[in-house]
Specification:
By secondary structure, this protein is an alpha/beta fold. The chain is 33% helix and 25% strand. It folds into three domains: 2-139 and 258-329, FAD/NAD(P)-binding domain (3-Layer(bba) Sandwich); 147-255, FAD/NAD(P)-binding domain (3-Layer(bba) Sandwich); 339-443, FAD/NAD-linked reductase, C-terminal dimerisation domain (Enolase-like, domain 1), CATH 3.30.390.30. The strands form five sheets. Strands 1, 2, 3, 4, 5, 6 and 17 form a seven-stranded mixed sheet that branches. It has a five-stranded parallel sheet with strand order 8-15-9-10-11.
């Protein structure tokens, strides 16, 4: 009998299998496809390779600002695809090797839970004390007349050998923003129609506005409060209130995702589901069935691979008798655009709605010495704090290296560092990381490099 059977070989399932093995568990990982899941094969890794290529292309176009005389050619899409495939394959090979190194059995096939302690894989029964569901997510194709013929999925985009002349994007989340950035740099005419008043509706409004402005400067047309209702050839009909308008686009990006939960046998175990279709779990990542846990995209929510890996550690430790809780408030988010975005915790608006007396500090990249010398002055750091206790409630960064800098905020919040303690810190100079400390000093009321307040 196994101690743990994990269903799914993405970042979550892989981490869960290794952590349970480290705790001396007998572990099996069931996966019916290539190891690596969405992140390695169709998400995080491939998309960031494309964005890195776009970033280098844009940097080369600006090389004259630093005295470099370069002739910038076109982007070799085949070379990008080859690199994407090579890196993904290397990661997959490493994952398989580490699973073997840790003694986890890898079972190829489709897993179905037939009892609280049994997983069936293509007719073979695996008896286990605990089950961790890590089945990830899949593309969610909206039911819009005519869309299928015009659809350009993220899977297709990441394998593209030709950049479409024009694209309509309707996903207001981080995936839509990254793809709008990428496609606009590569020469597509991008129309970004979002159902609400702004892109990134779940992020801080200042971050949303900064990234929207960056997209507009690239020529992206943003249409707020517009919903796609039908497609006929290249003609896309958008509805805003009672009014309709049409825009022309060669392709319509389909990037929204939904949890994979069908066919697992969860309903027979009385497992509950969230409104977004994700599997409902508690802070231990346990479902309503005590021996069944769920982690990552299949639980809905943010659907981020690093959250899946953190949930994996939590679930595996609970399976092996070590009490653990998943700190959902520490889930950081990032956008690898130009500029980048990094965030964690509550936005200013969310903190106010929760009843906090909010104190906010900020610091612009435009007066950070390192940003100035590099010519990367777009962006700012914003720190949201509890005015009474000094608790850091959220940090929101738009600017170069934001995806790395947000780690400072995550660590500070994890260790329950107050804004006053953070403000007393100091960093190497010149560096982007100074901006985070400067924002904390502003929130604490004693910014050194900003004009006096009021």
């Amino acid at each position: 009998m196994y101690d743990v059977v994990v269903i799914g070989g993405g970042p979550g399932g892989y981490a869960a299998a290794i952590r349970a093995s480290q705790l001396k568990g007998k572990v099996a990982l069931v996966d019916n496809a290539d190891m690596g899941g969405t992140c390695v094969m169709r998400g995080c890794i491939p998309s960031k390779i494309w964005l890195r290529a776009a970033e280098l292309l844009e940097q080369s176009r600006k090389a004259g600002e630093f005295g470099l005389e370069l002739t910038v050619g076109k982007l070799d899409l085949d070379a990008v695809l080859a690199r994407k495939q090579g890196v993904s394959n290397d990661i997959r090979m490493g994952m398989n090797a580490l699973l073997g190194n840790n003694g986890a059995d890898v079972v190829t096939g489709k897993g179905k839970i037939t009892s609280p302690t049994t997983v069936e894989v293509d007719g073979k029964k695996l008896e286990t004390k605990n089950i961790i569901v890590a089945t990830g997510s899949t593309l969610d194709m909206p039911d819009i007349p005519g869309l299928k013929d015009a659809a350009f999925t993220t899977d297709q985009l990441l394998d593209m050998k030709k950049v479409p002349a024009s694209v309509l994007i309707t996903d207001p989340t981080y995936i839509g923003v990254e793809m709008a950035t990428l496609l606009s740099i590569l020469g597509s005419k991008v129309i970004f129609a979002v159902p609400g008043p702004r892109i990134l509706p779940d992020e801080d409004q200042d971050s949303s506005q900064r990234l929207a402005q960056s997209l507009r400067e690239r020529g992206v047309q943003i249409l707020a409060r517009h919903t796609l209702v039908k497609v006929a050839g290249k003609t896309c009909t958008l509805k805003s209130g009672d009014k309709e308008q049409t825009v022309d686009a060669d392709k319509v990006l389909v990037s929204a995702r939904k949890p994979v939960t069908d066919g697992l046998g969860l309903e027979a175990l009385d497992v509950k589901f969230n409104d977004d279709g994700g599997i409902a779990v508690d802070e231990q990542c346990r479902t309503a069935c005590p021996s069944v846990f769920a982690i990552g995209d299949c639980t809905g929510g943010w659907m981020l691979s690093h959250a899946a890996s953190a949930m994996a550690i939590c679930a595996a430790e609970n399976c092996m008798g070590t009490a653990a809780k998943f700190p959902s408030h520490l889930v950081s988010r990032a956008i690898w655009g130009i500029p980048q975005m990094g965030s964690v915790g509550l936005s200013e608006e969310q903190a106010e709605r929760k009843g906090y007396e909010v104190e906010v500090g900020g610091f612009p990249y435009s007066i950070n010495g390192y940003a100035m010398l590099r010519g990367e002055v777009d962006g700012a750091v914003k720190m949201v704090t509890d005015a009474e206790t000094g608790e850091i409630l959220g940090v929101h960064i738009v600017g170069a290296n934001a995806s790395e800098l947000i780690g400072e905020a995550v660590l500070a919040m994890q260790l329950e560092c107050t804004v006053r303690e953070f403000a007393k810190g100091f960093r190497v100079h010149p560096a982007f990381c100074e901006t985070v400390v400067d924002a904390a000093r502003d929130a604490a009321g004693w910014a050194l490099y900003l004009p006096k307040r009021g």
